[in-house]
């Protein structure tokens, strides 16, 4: 699947205008078994999810576990300039999806496509034998309207178990979509501990780098106060000429409400043109 938006990018501007914000955020699928007042109930969390998005309003965002009934409130939070790329991970249109959200005031979408992390990546709903769920990636090639730089962004959500599934999904993703000489971002819930898993080692062995320091706090808090054992499953990795200006785990609780069982990760980045920071 691909789409083109005609028209040239804006000419390069003065230094500093190329800074962009990127986020990965597992918003948690809605589970009807929970009562409305439960911490995990979608109607409890919805205002907090919208508040987190509106507060930080990234120009690129990877969202995981999105179900069709969550799309409208998410679009309301991001606003009309943000385009949602991606569709169901299943063969139909009503299942869970991993999305890449793009601010089209900032980026021209040169091309985008969704693929399945399977032996048959173009077959909707396909997966490796033994994998619990179909897994997808959404890849977009984006022209920065401020600088004219062409970026590649990839959003994904890997399997929670077993690790061999994540490793072959990551290998398929690397083989298909990470061969790129320009600035590259890989954003997602990798379901593996940053710094402490074979999935992490395989990702960095391919040349990617983390936007966060090694001692960054965890992201998967499961509606509990995070602590030193909270795993960091949500990553923003970068490759090619990218300069990281800042990054953090967004441990917001709007009005005391957990937005999700994951905290998002937010990064401020720019194309590294070789000049001094």
From TrEMBL:
Keyword Transmembrane on this protein?
no
Q: Which residues form the Endonuclease/exonuclease/phosphatase domain?
A: 23-262
- Answer whether the UniProt record assigns the keyword Transcription regulation to this protein: no
Report the domain of life of the source organism.
Answer: Bacteria
According to the UniProt entry, its GO molecular function terms are: hydrolase activity
Instruction: Kindly give the InterPro entries that the UniProt entry links to this protein.
Output: Endo/exonu/phosph_ase_sf (IPR036691), Endo/exonuclease/phosphatase (IPR005135)
Query: What's in the keyword line of the UniProt record?
Result: Hydrolase
What SUPFAM superfamilies has UniProt attached to this entry?
DNase I-like (SSF56219)
**Protein name in UniProt:** Metal-dependent hydrolase
> What is the species listed in this Swiss-Prot or TrEMBL entry?
Kocuria dechangensis
């Amino acid at each position: 699947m691909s789409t083109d938006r005609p028209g040239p990018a804006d000419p390069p501007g003065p230094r500093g205008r190329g800074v962009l914000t990127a986020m990965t955020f597992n918003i948690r699928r809605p589970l009807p078994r929970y009562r409305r007042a439960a911490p995990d109930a979608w109607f409890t969390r919805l205002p907090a999810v919208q508040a987190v998005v509106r507060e930080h309003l990234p120009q690129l965002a990877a969202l995981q576990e999105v179900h069709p009934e969550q799309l409208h409130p998410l679009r309301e939070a991001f606003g009309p300039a943000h385009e949602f790329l991606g569709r169901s991970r299943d063969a139909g249109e009503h299942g869970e999806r991993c999305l890449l959200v793009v601010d089209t005031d900032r980026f021209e979408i040169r091309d985008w496509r969704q693929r399945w992390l399977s032996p048959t990546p173009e077959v909707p709903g396909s997966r490796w034998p033994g994998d619990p769920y179909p897994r997808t990636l959404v890849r977009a090639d984006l022209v920065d309207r401020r600088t004219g730089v062409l970026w590649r962004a990839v959003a994904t959500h890997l399997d929670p178990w077993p690790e061999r599934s994540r490793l072959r999904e990551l290998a398929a993703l690397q083989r298909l979509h990470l061969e790129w000489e320009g600035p590259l971002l890989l954003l997602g819930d990798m379901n593996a501990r940053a710094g402490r898993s074979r999935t992490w080692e395989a990702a960095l062995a391919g040349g990617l780098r983390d936007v966060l320091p090694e001692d960054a706090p965890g992201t998967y808090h499961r509606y509990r106060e995070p602590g030193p054992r909270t795993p960091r499953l949500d990553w923003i990795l970068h490759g090619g000429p990218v300069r990281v200006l800042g990054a953090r785990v967004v441990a917001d609780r709007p009005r005391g409400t957990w937005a999700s069982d994951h905290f998002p990760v937010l990064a401020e980045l720019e194309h590294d043109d070789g000049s001094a920071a």
